[in-house]
Amino acid sequence: MIYDIEYETMPREAMESIQLRRLQTTLQRVYATVPFYREKFDQAGLTPSDIQSLNDLEKIPFTYKKDLRDNYPFGMFAVPMDNVVRIHASSGTTGQPTVVGYTARDIDTWANLMARSLAAGGASRGDIIHNAYGYGLFTGGLGVHYGAEKMGASVIPVSGGNSKRQIIIMKDFGPTIITATPSYALHLAEVAEEMGVSFNELKFKFGIFGAEPWSETMRQEIERKLNLTAVDIYGLSEVIGPGVSIECHEAKNGMHIFEDHFIPEIINPETGEVLPYGEIGELVFTSITKEAFPVIRYRTRDITRLHPEVCTCGRTLVRMEKVSGRTDDMLIIRGVNVFPSQIESVLMETDAVEPHYQLVIGRKENLDTLTVMVEVGENIFSDEVKGLQKLEKKISHNIKEFLGVSAKVQLVEPKTIARSQGKAVRVIDNRKI
Ligand code: DLL
Question: pLDDT tens digit string along 123-150?
Answer without folding.
Answer: 999 999 999 999 999 999 999 999 999 9
